[in-house]
Amino acid sequence: MKILYFASLKESLKLSSEEIILATNITTAQLKKQLIDRHGEHHFPNNVLCAINQEIANDPVIINEVDEVAFYPPVTGG
Questions:
Q1: What does the angle CA 32 – CA 25 – CA 40 come to, to the nearest 5 degrees?
Q2: Which CATH superfamily is domain 2-72 in?
Q3: pLDDT in tens, 10-46
Q4: Which of 12, 35, 55, 59 is the most buried (most CB within 10 A)?
Q5: 17-27 burial string, b = 16+ CB within 10 Å, else e?
Q6: Residues 34, 50: contact at Cβ < 8 Å?
């Protein structure tokens, strides 16, 4: 599965994307936990957003191997 990173998350990880292999379908919360274990909790704070197939996804949403997954910090306006 390809995971995309955007904005300040992309800059702090020094990655725009990465490929990971999933043993089974997992939830977004489980994927975040794997990414925290890999990259560190400071990169994935509680307010980091996850999109699956270009739609915001909450923690219990199931991710399939063919889904496009993206993480990005919350957007602020002014």
A1: 15
A2: Beta-grasp domain (3.10.20.30)
A3: 999 999 999 998 878 899 999 999 999 999 999 999 8
A4: 35
A5: eeeeeeeeebe
A6: no
